[in-house]
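Progress narrative, Year 2. Work on Lipid-binding serum glycoprotein C-terminal domain-containing protein from Patiria miniata advanced from sequence curation to structure prediction during this period.
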Amino acid sequence: MIIKEVNTDLQKQFSKLKTQAPIDQYAVIDYSLVTAPQFSGHVDTAHKGEVFPRDTPHKEAPYTVPVIRPDPDVSRHVFLWVTDYLFQTAAYVYYEAGKFEFNVTQDKMPPGKYSLNTSSFLVESLLPNVSKKYPNLLMQVNANATAPPVINIGEDNVNVSLKADLDFFVTLPNKTLVYLFTLNSTISCSTLLSSDGMSLKWMTDSLSIVVALKRSAIGKIQMKPISEAVHALTSFFLIPWINEEGRKGFPLPTSPNIKLEKTVIKQGKGFIKLAADIKFTPSALL
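Result:
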């Protein structure tokens, strides 16, 4: 009788798993069931797994929902499958919200690390004509993604690629921006995944960037030293930002009654399988 009541309560709690969870002020993750839970010797639940804007009308992302293959693994209580679709819809939402736009100015730089002053050694060596024409003025770099990031799950990591334009300016004393040049860039990094049972997290410790001159108002530019400087600047800004977002992570579908423990992540081409044991507390004991 007790087992029957617990099983009935467990079935009810699975049916009551939160269908939406806010990620931040920009996005919400949708875990709504697409079919009723199936209970036999185990539990099968199919969730949508899509990220959409938090405070604007829901706009379908231009991606195809993949089919998740059957899996005979019964070594854990629960298995949560996550596909590229979840990450791609998240990337699409944040791109539409302008989250991949950055303005790099001197006040955002660490003291003594880099100088965006036109009379600094770095700028004099990279852009001597700019240094002569605009002495002792600050520069600004505006980074704007030109498309949503492309995210691919592999067996060992998750690869992320972002295309962005980097616009370089000199800031005049009256705050007017003088345009210098624009670089095309492709920024790539690999992230490692983890989970604490409450959310799916990620981190990275390096990235690569390939740049090319798109247009210039100052003539020819020596691209190799510019590329090296841009790589250092991009790493300084993006790696901490990626890891800060990764510490927040994506919330997993849990409830006050259901907690995930001893989580293990297995990855394959296009998917993540998160295996976990369930710690279930009957409603009567809460």
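The first strand starts at residue 20 and ends at 22. The chain has five helices and 16 strands.
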